[in-house]
Amino acid sequence: MHCPALTTHEALSGVFGSISLAAWIFLLVPQLIENYTQHSAEGISLAFLIVWFIGDITNLAGAIWAGLVPTVIALAVYFCFADLILISQCVYYNALNARKSARSKSIQTANTATDGDNREEEPLLSRRRNSSLGLPGSHSRKSSAASRRRTNSMHRRDSLASIVEEETGSRQWIKNAISIIGIMIVGSAGWAIAWRTGVWRPTPAENGNNGTEVALGATILGYASAVCYLGARIPQIIKNQRDRSCEGLSLLFFILSLVGNATYGAGIIFHSTEKEYFLTNLPWLIGSLGTMVEDAVIFIQFRVFGDGEASAAIV
Questions:
Q1: Distance from first CA to last CA of the chain, Å, rounded?
Q2: In sequence order, which residues have a C-beta less than 8 Å from that of residue 200 and are 6 or more positions away?
Q3: For 235-263, what is each residue's pLDDT tens digit?
Q4: Residues 6+ apart with CB under 8 A from 281
Q5: For residue 212, how far is the Cα from the chain centroid?
């Protein structure tokens, strides 16, 4: 099959767009796995997911209104279903853990009441013997020796824990790097196959918006989705700051988001820098580039807070 001639810019636009597509398809998988592994969704803000879901809905409505190609609409539908799956998982784990917590508190309250009753029935002499009998100074010497042993044991455990944590962190970064490289390879290979088979064809930049104007309503929905994408991460950033921890969040989830937004913007810019084309895609550019800044803030929080142990030690 004859393949149309490609300019360098158009080829780069296609590759970046395909990499972005691969990143978006696998975006929610790391967080789904993280929640399943932890059997908890306390680390992720439900408000973040709901606002993001609203952004995907407005994006889908805008794509349908604008009459975009079926593949774009199909992807928008996929994103909405993926959001619903993650939200449902978070609601399930939150409800499940809330019931477990309530049950644990009730059992603890019952045990405390039973211990209090037993304490009242204990003879007074036995309580005194248990509390402070012994030669003067003997209790303090034993306590200090035990305290030193506990301190040394804690130091050894802390050193071992720091070594294990460092090794775990190194392995995690290697896994994340391999995942990103894999996404780039899959995206690039997907574009090459689509081009060679004629599924993907270059669109001349001089055609601007393919000779059609986007409806005003579709443009408004595009800006609405951009606002939702920009605002979605704010509850998550506030939650991380309040908890001083990023425990329960998947770092790869936000790395894939950064890669997807960066390559999406690059694909648009490499395709054309004409004013009409740029303004048509401005809502999506604002949403992509703006969320990259917010993702950078979350990366800083991962670095500063980690899983909460470092911050707890500082406090």
A1: 66
A2: 14, 191, 194
A3: 999 999 999 999 999 999 999 999 999 99
A4: 268
A5: 37
